[in-house]
Amino acid sequence: MAESSDSVSLDMEKIYLGGKEHHIRTGCGSVSVIVYGDPEKPALITYPDLALNYMSCFQGLFFCPEAASLLLHNFCIYHISPPGHELGASAICPDDPVPSVEDLADQIVEILNYFGLGAVMCMGVTAGAYILTLFAMKYRERVLGLILVSPLCKAPSWTEWFYNKVMSNLLYFYGMCGLLKECLLQRYFSKEVRGNVEIPESEIVQACRKLLDERKTTNVLRFLESINQRPDITEGLKRLKCRTLIFVGDSSPFHSEALHMTSKLDRRFSALVEVQACGSMVTEEQPHAMLIPMEYFFMGYGLYRPCHFSDSPRSPLSPSCISPELLSPESMGLKLKPIKTRVPMEV
């Protein structure tokens, strides 16, 4: 009966989003892409973090009315899932070779070619941000711009490598157990929403915890192995000329990595937004914090929201919170300057 209930929930979600799923055969296996929007519009591709898919990584952003208005008015969305991370995925054969991060970046080209897409806007979270950055470095002519959330660019530190090995062992011996889920939730969210003995965890954490149960252990393990063997791509960042907007929560375990990456990018084409009291997954924890910076970022491409929304009372950002440099004419995507946006916690 549980499987039947999950299947009904999945169907309802697909109907709500109006998306269509495509399973695309590539050189390193099949990959799921959910497409929704007008295919005549410019393309925006998304790539989630480890053990996530578009439902658990981008739902908060796309369910935010103001952000949905901005994104869906201007783009056709292509949600790419890491191999075997889509809803209802079966376990990948253990005999299949584990793809490298280079393979995963090359896989994106095959996806774009399948849909007949040229240059695309890219949005990725942590591991997904690394894959899209590598893709942009290898295939510059296929990328219009990058929106990166808590991105990676260096090889794993000894601490991260060890932590990932612990998660690998948990996956191998115990599957998606409670301890592993706690490790992943610490990777994604700040302590403010994970809760404690006095404060219950938030609904977004509860929803993510439930969605993690649907992941196939072997598929998550394969993606984790790929990411844990990633090379340092710092040297190539200076040559990256596409406009880049980086978001990072100041409670993210990858906060220092995002700052390092920003320091290596060409300052004429990049901007940093730090979000206070937020973990890695800004798209879920504080999606409203992304709205105004994205709006000004897209203005550099001549893209706007279709109608005016008043400042949302839920939004932690207002124009007064944005650095004046970002609001200057030269920064409308043409010369984005590094900024530091602090989002005050609601009392």
Automatic annotation (TrEMBL):
Q: Does the keyword Amino-acid biosynthesis apply?
A: no
Q: Which UniProt keywords apply?
A: Membrane, Transmembrane, Transmembrane helix
Query: What transmembrane ranges does the database entry give?
Result: 114-137
Q: Which residues form the signal peptide?
A: none
Recorded hits in Pfam families, A to Z, give: Ndr
**Ribonucleoprotein as UniProt keyword:** no
- List, alphabetically, the PANTHER family matched: N-MYC DOWNSTREAM REGULATED
Similarity annotation: Belongs to the NDRG family.
**Per its record, how is this protein called by name?**
NuDeL-like protein
What species is given as this protein's source?
Answer: Stylosanthes scabra
